[in-house]
Amino acid sequence: MLKLSNAVEIAxxxxxxxxxxxxxxxxxNVNKVxxxxxxxxxxxxxxxxxxxxxxxxxxxxxxxxKEGVIIIKAQSFRTLELNKEDALERLKELIxxxxxVQKVRRATRPSKSAQRKxxxxxxxxxxxxxxxGKVQV
Length: 137
Description:
Elements: E1 2-3, E2 9-10, E3 15-20, H1 28-32, E4 36-42, H2 50-58, E5 69-74, H3 80-99, H4 112-130
Antiparallel strand pairs: 1-2, 3-4, 4-5
Organism: Marinobacter xiaoshiensis
Keywords: Coiled coil, Hydrolase
InterPro entries: Pep_chain_release_fac_I, Pep_chain_release_fac_I_sf
């Protein structure tokens, strides 16, 4: 059971976890032990609320296929258990980030005094630079 919020949870049967062999260096151990994890989560066929599904499907993330299957590969740890926990945590973060409502940005303008100060500083800087010319003898 993966708890996303107080009201939303993902059942274990909805998440498919398969063991695979890890890539990279590690000697003979890497060729014998399947310690990496492939996590697959089918968004359209899950029991998530419609709002969650819409937001996830709208994401432009390379981990989400066109069919709406989230695929996460975890192989950063040496044990299967830690890689499983890592994959589940990354799935949880992805879903929570997709559902997070962005704060509405309101356009602001600088005040009249701020505009005036800016122009005054520019003219002062221009006068200072004008004094840096060649000296007439």
